[in-house]
């Protein structure tokens, strides 16, 4: 970093908060990418926007503007990402949303919702994991509510949600049915030994209970998310609409939308409330 000319708007503390878990080589790559991006635009110094793009490239891949989506796909992705962002911002224990985008990046991502932790965490409570599970399902449930249909866009989200739920049940003892016992997940551990015979350490009955408990966690999360998005449907529409207009929303814009919508809803509620005397009657 000392050999790079930085613009005055570069905030190193902000950069550190945006790169949790990055190793030294990862950070060096971000600096190099930011420098190259600034050079491509003939800038005299590397600005915060260059680092922003470099971090996006490191986390989600290069922009693929050549990947042209049709109008229905863009609307679907906008509501999908709006669902993720709204659920994450509605949960007390979710990392705050830093950016929401419907610009295709990398090999397969047609959009993404970027969450950044406010601090390093080494132990997570069950309530925090449940909130993360909700955020994973936000996109899928938004599609169900808005279009009364589903798409392939949630495949990776469902992989993550299923893996998280299974980890909670099998490794963390977070199932009232299974108690404090933990179980190996041979499918996840097999890796290059995928052709080796599984070495199960539990009965078929227990395996069935594990599957049922994983399904229960996912079903309960789905119900919570569905309730949230039905209650905040107007806000979901506003976020998706602005995404279609701008393609990228930062944290400040997203939070402003949420605050304005909640203020409007409070005003409507106050105006529609009956006078005190009428309520008492």
TrEMBL record:
Keyword entries, A-Z = ATP-binding, Hydrolase, Metal-binding, Metalloprotease, Nucleotide-binding, Protease, Zinc
Does this UniProt record's set of keywords contain Hydrolase?
A: yes
Q: Which GO MF terms are attached to this record?
A: ATP binding; ATP-dependent peptidase activity; metal ion binding; metalloendopeptidase activity
Q: Which Pfam families match?
A: AAA_lid_3, Peptidase_M41
Q: Where is the AAA ATPase AAA+ lid domain?
A: 9-53
Give all residue intervals belonging to the Peptidase M41 domain: 67-257
Question: In which residue ranges is the amino acid composition biased (Polar residues)?
Answer: 261-270
User: Which BP terms from GO are recorded?
Assistant: proteolysis
What family is it from? In the C-terminal section; belongs to the peptidase M41 family.
Protein name as catalogued = FtsH-2 protease
Q: What is the lineage of its organism?
A: Bacteria, Pseudomonadati, Pseudomonadota, Betaproteobacteria, Burkholderiales
């Amino acid at each position: 970093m000392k050999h790079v000319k930085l613009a005055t708007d570069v905030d190193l503390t902000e950069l550190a908060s945006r790169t949790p878990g990055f190793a030294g080589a990862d950070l060096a790559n971000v600096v190099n990418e930011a420098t190259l991006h600034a050079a491509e635009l003939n800038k005299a110094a590397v600005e915060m926007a260059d680092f922003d793009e470099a971090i996006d490239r490191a986390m989600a891949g290069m922009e693929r503007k050549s990947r042209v989506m049709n109008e229905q796909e863009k609307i679907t992705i906008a509501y999908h990402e709006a669902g993720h962002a709204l659920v994450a911002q509605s949960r007390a224990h979710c990392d705050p949303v830093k950016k929401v985008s419907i610009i295709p990046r990398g090999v397969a991502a047609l959009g993404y919702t970027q969450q950044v932790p406010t601090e390093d965490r080494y132990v997570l409570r069950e309530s925090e994991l449940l909130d993360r599970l909700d955020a994973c399902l936000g996109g899928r449930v938004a599609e169900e509510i808005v279009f009364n249909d589903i798409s392939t866009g949630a495949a990776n989200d469902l992989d993550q949600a299923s893996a998280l739920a299974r980890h909670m049940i099998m490794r963390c003892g977070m199932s009232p049915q299974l108690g404090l016992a933990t179980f190996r997940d041979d499918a996840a551990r097999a890796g290059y030994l995928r052709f080796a015979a599984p070495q199960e350490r539990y009965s078929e009955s227990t395996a069935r209970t594990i599957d049922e408990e994983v399904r229960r966690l996912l079903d309960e999360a789905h119900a919570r998310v569905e309730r949230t998005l039905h209650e905040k449907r107007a806000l979901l529409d506003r976020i998706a609409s602005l995404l279609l207009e701008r393609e990228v929303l930062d944290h400040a814009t997203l939070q402003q939308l949420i605050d304005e919508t909640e203020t409007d809803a409070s005003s409507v509620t106050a105006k529609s409330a009956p006078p005190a005397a009428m309520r008492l009657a």
